[in-house]
Amino acid sequence: MKMTDPVIPYAPPEQQRYASVLSMGTRIGLALLVIGFCSYAFEWIPPLVPHESLATVWNQPLARYLELTGVPTGWGWVNLIDRSDIFNLVGIGILSGVSLLCLAAAAPFYASRGERVYLALCLLEIAVLLLAASGILTSGH
In the chain, how many domains are there? Predict the structure, then answer.
C-alpha cells in the first residue's frame, strides 16, 4: 500500500479568519480561566467570598446568597474583577463572546464580495448576541 500526500480541504478566507479568531479567543479564555482558578485556589488574590464562608452560603437560596455575599447581579461583576472568584468570569465571558468576534472578523469578506445575504446574517447574529449580552431582555429579576 502506497502512502499518498494527505488531501487538505480548501477553506475560504472568511472561514480561515473565523477559525483563527476562534482559536485565539478560546486559548486566551482558557488561559484566563486557569490563571483565575489558580489565583483563587492558592489565594494569590483575595476573593469576594472568603473560602471559610463558602460552606455556609452555598446552600442558601439565591436571594439570600446574594444578600450574604454582596455578589452583584447583571454586569455588576465587572467592577469586581480584582477579586479572584469574580475574575474567573472574565475567562467565561471571553469564551462565550468569542463567536461575536469571529462573526465580526468574517463579515468584511462577505461585504467585499457583495454577498449581502451572508453579510446580513453575520450582522443580524452579531446584533442578537449583543442584545442578549446587554441584559435588556431579562425576566424574573
Answer: 1
